[in-house]
């Protein structure tokens, strides 16, 4: 499969972030725990190089627990504060504030030495499409947080949300799209649903997913669909179609429907907890 990206979106989002990032102390980067590297935008390291940094590995409920621990260790070794999160259920949210304090420890100490007390940490959240950024912000903010209004220098329309007396969140950060030269990154993003399905050939993507599962999670397909895995990936799709009664008129196997079912089973966690990238 070949994936193309559109730099116009990237340029606009990058300019917005260049402006907004000057207003914050901390950049909180939301990643999909199933594909932590592929769901990063490399520009964030450049744009946020003088800011405190924090990584949230989201959707850990769908990811391989052992591999998630390895990714957590990987990012901590790189100097990031890291929190494991399932923003839909709220699991891990209680550790976010601790992580913010950890990430901004130097700033807090610096403020103390200067005699500055009770200045809230200003943070922004960045993340590519479909990593759960909106869900995270909405869950973290809840209904009890008050918007503090426009602050000097903030582009019109940007609002600050006071999460508590110690943290303010910029609620309209630009989303940065991933850019990739390596097509495997595009494949991983297609697997997890960060690239729209309507621009992807479903059977081709499912074919690639079968190949990955046979190598990295060889028992998954048998456990879910009840058959011994065939050597040929397309034959596996035919077996899924047969096992799930995906049929066209005349009894012909509907591999297109079976492919869509396989992708949905993977993305929803019905296949089990799977991570497509290893450290």
Number of H- or I-type helical stretches: 11
Shape: elongated
What is the rounded distance between the termini? 24 Å
Largest sheet: 7 strands, mixed
Strand fraction band?
A: 5-15%
Low-confidence stretches: 149-156
User: What's the rounded overall pLDDT mean?
Assistant: 86
CA-atom Rg in angstroms = 21 Å
Order of helices and strands: HEHEHEHHEHEEEHHHHH
Secondary structure category: alpha/beta
Number of strands: 7
Outline the structure in words.
- The protein has helices at 7-20, 43-47, 65-77, 96-103, 105-113, 133-141, 183-192, 202-216, 220-225, 233-243, 255-268, and strands at 26-32, 52-58, 81-84, 121-126, 146-147, 160-164, 167-170.
- It is α/β, with parallel strands linked by helices and 279 residues long.
- It has a 7-stranded mixed β-sheet with strand order 3-2-1-4-7-6-5, with helices on both faces.
- Helix 10 (233-243) crosses helix 11 (255-268).
- The chain is elongated and about 80 Å long.
- The chain starts with 6 loop residues before the first helix and ends in an 11-residue tail after the last helix.
């Amino acid at each position: 499969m070949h994936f193309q990206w559109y730099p116009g979106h990237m340029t606009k989002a990058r300019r917005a972030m260049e402006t907004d990032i000057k207003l914050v102390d901390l950049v909180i980067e939301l990643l999909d725990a199933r594909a932590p590297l592929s769901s990063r935008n490399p520009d964030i390291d450049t744009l946020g190089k003088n800011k405190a940094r924090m990584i949230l590995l989201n959707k850990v409920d769908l990811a391989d627990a052992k591999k998630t621990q390895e990714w957590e260790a990987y990012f901590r070794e790189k100097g990031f504060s890291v929190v494991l999160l399932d923003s839909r259920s709220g699991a891990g949210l209680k550790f976010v504030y601790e992580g913010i304090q950890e990430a901004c420890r130097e700033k807090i100490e610096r403020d103390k030495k200067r005699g500055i007390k009770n200045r809230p940490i200003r943070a922004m959240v960045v993340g590519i499409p479909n990593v759960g950024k909106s869900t995270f912000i909405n869950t973290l903010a809840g209904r009890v947080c008050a918007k503090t209004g426009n602050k000097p220098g903030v582009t019109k329309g940007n609002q600050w949300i006071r999460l508590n007396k110690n943290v303010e969140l910029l609620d309209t950060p630009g989303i940065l799209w991933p850019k990739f030269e390596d097509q495997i990154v595009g494949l991983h993003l297609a697997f997890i649903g960060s690239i729209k399905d309507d621009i992807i050939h479903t059977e081709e993507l499912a074919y690639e997913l079968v190949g990955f599962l046979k190598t990295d999670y060889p028992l998954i397909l048998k456990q879910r669909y009840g058959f011994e895995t065939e050597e040929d990936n397309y034959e596996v799709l035919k077996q899924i179609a047969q096992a799930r009664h995906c049929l066209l008129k005349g009894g012909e196997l509907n591999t297109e429907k079976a492919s869509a079912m396989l992708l949905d089973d993977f993305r929803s966690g019905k296949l089990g907890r799977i991570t497509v990238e290893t450290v």
